Inverse folding.
């Protein structure tokens, strides 16, 4: 928080902090940034940058009055996306910016800054970050970066983390042990939340490549059920829709042991069968496949708008799936790690895809699954993200047609 006061660091142009989640980066950086700016400047402008302004308010500025109580006066002008901070007769303006896409750099053009704080900078596009840095032309201005690790091919890692000394930045790596507010029990809980590459990034704080099997925690002995399964409660269907690509239906119901079971699968590949099906044919197949089961909701890839409309016409309660890929993969991985999911042995295609669902070797600096052997995995992800992650059954109680 006070690195800028130390004689051996005063000549640095900024600070870069990365590391594990819940390690105290955001709190330390925000407090340090505010204290530095109010001690070194008066009547100047600063930028606070996040992925979105909403996330910035949630993670940083919304907490400032509590964090700085008794030290700094905080005045928020929400309509201007600005806060004014005052201390010991000094006053500065802090503008909030969201760097969510390549067009965001236009929002920060023209302003003159004495400093900029990037919260979760690895989630922002390069054009936005570089434009914000270019605005820091006031003498004594500094750059403040924090982030959780991503791929080692990420532009920020290659251009800034590995070149921190060259760019005259103080580099600090955080772990959960650096956060005195976390108990040992809470640290163990976070260790259980993530698996595979996400464990190495979010718990160990490493910039590592996503390589190999995506669901390496899948174990047939643990996750595949043989014979009849005793179930209870409502059923759900998750759908990955394709024309030439395969169309998949998965039937889900909770077992009496508390686990969610994939009880049945439907798989039709137009390429393999040399015949594509229409929306109407798939809807007919769904009715026959359900064989009298009435699902509480049919969760469908939102890109399949015409199929969703037809299902609604036929009386099915339809939900557009949550299609956030990386978030969905993390959620499925956590449920598998917890043993909360199981698959009937008759779901052969689904079980086989677990052994073939891998990370793309060259994702252009971004994590992405290889677009092969992924259709059952997509339907699985839709169910977990849309039903289980939102709260069991809550999504299905939304108004029909949403």
């Amino acid at each position: 928080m006070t690195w800028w006061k130390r004689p051996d660091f005063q000549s640095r142009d900024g600070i870069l902090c990365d590391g594990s989640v819940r390690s105290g980066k955001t709190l330390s950086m925000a407090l340090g940034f505010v204290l530095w700016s109010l001690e070194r400047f008066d009547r100047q402008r600063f930028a606070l940058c996040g992925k979105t302004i909403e996330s910035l308010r949630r993670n940083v500025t919304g907490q400032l009055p509590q964090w700085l109580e008794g030290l700094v006066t905080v005045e928020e002008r929400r309509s201007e996306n600005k806060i004014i901070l005052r201390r010991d007769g000094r006053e500065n303006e802090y503008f909030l910016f969201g760097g969510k896409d390549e067009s965001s750099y236009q929002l920060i053009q023209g302003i003159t800054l004495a400093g900029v704080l990037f919260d979760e900078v690895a989630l922002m596009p390069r054009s936005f970050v570089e434009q914000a840095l270019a605005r820091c032309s006031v003498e004594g201005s500094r750059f403040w970066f924090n982030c959780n690790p991503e791929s080692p091919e990420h532009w920020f890692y290659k251009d800034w983390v590995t070149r921190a000394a060259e760019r005259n930045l103080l580099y600090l790596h955080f772990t959960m042990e650096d956060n005195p507010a976390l108990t040992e029990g809470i640290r163990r809980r976070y260790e259980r939340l993530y698996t595979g590459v996400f464990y190495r990034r979010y718990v160990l704080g490493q910039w590592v490549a996503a390589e190999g099997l995506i669901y390496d925690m899948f174990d047939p002995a643990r996750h595949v059920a043989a014979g009849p399964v005793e179930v209870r409660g409502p059923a759900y269907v998750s759908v990955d829709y394709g024309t030439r690509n395969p169309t998949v239906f998965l039937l889900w119901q909770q077992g009496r042991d508390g686990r969610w079971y994939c009880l049945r699968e439907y798989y039709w590949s137009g390429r393999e069968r040399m015949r594509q099906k229409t929306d109407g044919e798939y809807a007919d197949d769904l009715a026959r496949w359900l064989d009298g089961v009435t699902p509480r909701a049919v969760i469908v890839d939102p890109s399949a708008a015409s199929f969703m409309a037809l299902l609604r016409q036929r009386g099915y309660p339809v939900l557009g799936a949550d299609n956030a890929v990386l978030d969905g993969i993390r959620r499925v991985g956590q449920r598998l790690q917890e043993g909360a999911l199981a698959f009937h042995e008759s779901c052969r295609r689904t079980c086989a895809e677990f052994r073939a669902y891998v990370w793309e070797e060259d994702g252009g600096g971004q994590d992405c699954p290889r677009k092969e052997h992924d259709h059952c995995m997509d339907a699985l992800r839709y169910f977990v993200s849309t039903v289980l992650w939102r709260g069991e059954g809550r999504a299905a109680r939304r108004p029909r047609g949403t």
Observations:
- Residues 291 and 371 are 31 Å apart (CA to CA).
- Residues 392-402 have pLDDT under 50 and may be disordered.
- Residues 25-40 form the longest helix (16 residues).
